[in-house]
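In the current project phase, work has continued on tokenised descriptions of protein folds. One protein thus recorded appears below exactly as we store it.

——
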Amino acid sequence: NAFQNETADADNGKNKALNNLMGALQGGKNDSDSDGGKDVESYNNYVDLGNLMTNDVEEALDRYFDGVNIAQDFSPIEGGNYISTTFSNYDYDLLDKVEAQAKAGTSYTEMDKAALTLIPTLKNLMEILDEAGNYGKQKGYLDDNYAKGEEIHSRFVPAVQTYDEERLPYLNGMKAILQEQQTKDLALLEEEGYTVRYQMLKLSMLKSEIMNLIYKQEEITDENVLSLDVSEIRPKYEEFAEVLSQFAENYKDKAELEKEGFESYSISQLSFFNDAVTEFKVQTQALLSRVEEQKPYSEAEKLSLRITDGSLEHLAESGAKITSRYNDVIG
């Protein structure tokens, strides 16, 4: 993790890859599944925990490092913003709920084991981040010149290191479950003739496949992106582009949307999903062109990779928007 190798930018890519494992947390099972109500609830609770990890927890960590340098020793960032946000009671209730179901046992035995290991570690990390958040919200650092911030950091470092290790089995386990569930959902949507919902899920799955093909090449970062092997990525991109061209027309078909049961709010969000998948297509296309043409970043582009076309950072951000926009539509 970042504390073990503070100069390794590759860790950022690995973190994004881990998040991408959860990149298709688009809703859970429904009561029509044959596994029964209890299994459905267990599945949805595990999905909710994954969402908490890859959204709220990751955001809290980002906020922490907006004000504190990534290092073993405490060092506030000059001009930075010390974290001032905290987790909700709902977040802690979710941990308790998942821990209780894991102790009781579900049909997802590997997830039960991973959850029982992870949850005490995650709860400890969240409590430390809450302590930091309250300290920042009250601007306590102006009273004690960051003395308490330094003490919090001494506990934060080992907590985040342990979490970084223990989240892997959980996220990998969720990846397998989600992929299996998505495959079932995709087949069901196709069978029922739900064209728009099918294409939305297919695009989301292809996005995750493209990102995983990139991040499995762990040595690749924006610094050496021209060495990226795109041989498996290009056919996935071409499939993505084909589905997108169909979706761009179908999502405007009012009769089809009514048939598929889209509510008015969901319909209003479809254009934002279309924008997100279009941007991902454009950024994947730009990345492929950059690699195939061996076009290095300019000095100016290196300073703004987040908005540079064809950068891994820009692509990862556009991929995350697909998940967010999907959830806005599907709920």
